[in-house]
Each structure stands twice: as structure tokens, then as C-alpha cells.
Amino acid sequence: MLAKLFNTFFGCWHQHYSFPITVRHGSRRNVAASLTGTYVVCLDCGKEMPYDWKEMRVASEDSHKARVRSLATKEAA
Questions:
Q1: What is the model's pTM?
Q2: Own/partner pairs for 9-12, CB < 8 Å, 24+ apart?
């Protein structure tokens, strides 16, 4: 928790991203791409983050899970 707080104030701000990379199924186990199938890499620190093509921005785990949950309830109804 202390490390997360330290990174918030002094860590990388992730302002320089690579072009979004889409991963084929089974080619490489990638945690960032497991949410959306696409990820971007911070060119300053190398962190991989999920990317949402529909929103055209870096996706957070919470927003993606909420959208999947809402789609699941629409399909069930």
C-alpha cells in the first residue's frame, strides 16, 4: 500500500504510450491484454496496460468488468 502511494506521487505518469497491440489467442499470456485483447505499453517505464478500442483509451479493470456485467444482464433478459 505504501509503494502504491509512493508511485502515485513520484512514479511514472504514463504519458507516452505505444500504438495499441492486439494479441492472438494462445500466442502469449499477457495479463494486460486478457481484459480487452489489446494493450498499450508505457514508453517511459515499460508497464503494459489494457486498451479499449471502442472507447479509444486505456481501460481500467473496474470499468471493463462493469461493462461486461451490464452486457451479461442484457443478454439474460
A1: 0.61
A2: 11/45, 12/42, 12/44, 12/45, 12/47
